[in-house]
Amino acid sequence: MTELAATIHRLQDRIRASGREITLLAVTKTIPPERVDAALAAGITVFGENKVQEAKAKIPLVSSRAHWHFIGHLQTNKARDAVELFELIHSVDSVKLAGELDKWAAHAGKTQPILLEINVAGEAQKFGIKPEDLPATLAQINQLSRLDVRGLMTVPPYCEEAEKVRPYFRRLRELRDAAGLCELSMGMSHDFEIAIEEGATIVRVGTAIFGERKKHESTD
User: Fold this and answer.
1) Which tens digit of pLDDT belongs to each residue from 134-163?
2) Is residue 215 part of a domain?
3) Which CATH number characterizes residue 70's domain?
4) Fewer CB within 10 Å: N-end or C-end of the chain?
5) Going by C-beta distance under 8 Å and a sequence separation of 6 or more, which residues neighbour residue 77?
6) Domain tally, the chain
7) Residue 10 DSSP one-character state
């Protein structure tokens, strides 16, 4: 067994300990196609990209057995490519973006599953819908016939002590429950177990699978 496969199996064991079905999404920003294929061979099937341009170059070079999600900030001018490339878009943060995705999904003759990104902590430097705006925003997006809103996503403030992010994960779960949705995309390499305890259905893990990136490149 390779070191990568052993790492993945240990992570999967930690996730299975929750007793729930959790999707382990491997964050592949800056990861070359051959490493993605190795992770696929080791049992991961869902991969997440942060940038559309990188995904366009990488996805054709990876086995077609891989499932791809978009997890980064999505500009409206990339909506067409996102609809073409990704099975689930985690980071829909405005009615305007949703409208573009709906338009291109109609062109493609498909229904596009999405998650709504919520800025739970109200951080000025981060994207996302304000929690108090979620009901009105969801009502508008639900009018778009080519989008399927599956749940919510968040990127909480980074804390060295993972326990300190628990309130943000709990708040997202409360918002999800109030909205009557299913999926919760939350939790990354250093805090995914706290996220799972608070109800995550998808955890986005990169560093704990592929190793440390350079400081300025790390997003997971």
Assistant:
1) 999 999 999 999 999 999 999 999 888 999
2) no
3) 3.20.20.10
4) N
5) none
6) 1
7) H
